[in-house]
């Protein structure tokens, strides 16, 4: 997961990058690796990493904690000083390197580091696991204070209509404490791959520690009518040949309700007719657009009168669709 990788490296920016630079890097990478655009099997995991890195680095408070504590920033108690954390980490690494695997066999001498954490010499049976775990977090363990719970992630699949309108969903979450059912609120306009944070709904802490957060990873299911490109929605618009030639007003169905498309004269298959703002909503900015992708259709069977009229048109028209323009 991305928590084991440097977020700055994921976005390809320096550690002193400004907010605008981080946003530009995210948009460029998101367009490149979005699963709706990039069909490489590895693109989806890469997109998750990019989204997580951006969610953290765009938030000043989260970024400050990430800079101070690195990948452990979500697990470190909120009131812990970075200097104490660095000292505890160094002590844990020093103990491990002096003895080897603390869970394995063998003998050796353990030091008192950090202060207040004691280890016995001799076999591994003398290790006090409460003290060992507590020492990593500045003396916070079953004896020294609460340990916060870890964050969790769960995927939630939505239809295009659900993503457009939002609403409430019942969600089953499995964890160490068993299975829980949550009623969650989905905001209108969520996009594929978006992370929705539910504060305090993650794993439970130890010794009275605060629970972690639960992150919902949005997955929008394929739809028989609509295709998504970020917040833009595409829908096929079948037209009769004379509608494309003469122009027409055609009513179509959209996730937001009925809409009318004005078809200009001389419209051919492949033309995209845009309805501004009729794509997915955007709570923080401009909504997406809806694109009607034109497909000219002809009858499978013609009546005698239709056939006569088409023959008359063929005999009088000078139009050659194969002639280069």
Topology, element by element:
Elements: H1 7-11, H2 19-33, H3 43-57, H4 60-69, H5 82-99, H6 129-136, E1 152-158, H7 160-165, E2 167-175, E3 178-186, E4 195-198, E5 214-220, E6 226-229, E7 232-240, H8 241-246, E8 248-254, E9 257-263, E10 272-275, E11 290-297, H9 304-316
Parallel strand pairs: 1-5, 7-11
Antiparallel strand pairs: 2-3, 4-5, 6-7, 8-9, 10-11
* Straight-line distance between termini: 53 Å
The CATH topology of the domain at 226-316: HSP40/DNAj peptide-binding domain
CATH superfamily of the domain at 226-316: Urease metallochaperone UreE, N-terminal domain
Low-confidence stretches: 98-144
Protein name: J domain-containing protein
Keywords: Chaperone, DNA replication, Stress response
GO cellular component, one term: cytoplasm
InterPro entries: DnaJ_C, DnaJ_domain, DnaJ_domain_CS, HSP40/DnaJ_pept-bd, J_dom_sf
């Amino acid at each position: 997961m991305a928590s084991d990788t440097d977020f700055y490296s994921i976005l390809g920016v320096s550690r002193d990058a400004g907010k605008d630079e981080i946003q530009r890097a995210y948009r460029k990478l998101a367009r490149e690796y979005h699963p709706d655009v990039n069909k490489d099997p590895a693109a989806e995991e890469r997109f998750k990493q990019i989204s997580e890195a951006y969610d953290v680095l765009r938030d000043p408070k989260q970024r400050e904690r990430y800079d101070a504590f690195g990948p452990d920033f979500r697990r470190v108690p909120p009131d812990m000083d970075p200097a104490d954390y660095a000292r505890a980490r160094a002590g844990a690494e020093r103990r491990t390197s002096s003895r080897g695997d603390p869970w394995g066999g063998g003998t050796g001498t353990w030091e008192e580091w950090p202060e207040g954490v004691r280890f016995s010499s001799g076999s591994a049976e003398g290790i006090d696991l409460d003290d060992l775990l507590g020492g990593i977090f500045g003396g916070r363990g079953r004896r020294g204070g609460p340990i916060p719970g870890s964050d969790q992630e769960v995927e939630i699949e939505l239809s295009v209509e659900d993503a457009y309108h939002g609403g409430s969903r019942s969600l089953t979450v499995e964890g160490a404490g068993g299975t829980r059912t949550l009623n969650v609120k989905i905001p209108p306009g969520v996009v594929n791959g978006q992370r929705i944070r539910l504060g305090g709904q993650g794993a439970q802490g130890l010794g009275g520690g605060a629970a972690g957060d639960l992150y919902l990873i949005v997955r929008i299911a394929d739809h028989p009518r609509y295709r998504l490109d970020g917040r833009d929605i595409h829908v096929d618009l079948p037209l009769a040949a004379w509608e494309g030639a003469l122009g027409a007003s055609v009513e179509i169905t959209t996730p937001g309700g009925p809409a009318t498309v004005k078809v200009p004269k001389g419209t051919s298959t492949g033309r995209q007719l845009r309805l501004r703002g009729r794509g997915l909503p955007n709570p923080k900015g401009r909504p997406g657009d809806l694109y009607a992708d034109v497909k000219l259709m002809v009858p499978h069977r013609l009546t005698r009168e239709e056939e006569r009229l088409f023959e008359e048109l063929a005999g009088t028209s000078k139009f050659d669709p194969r002639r280069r323009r």
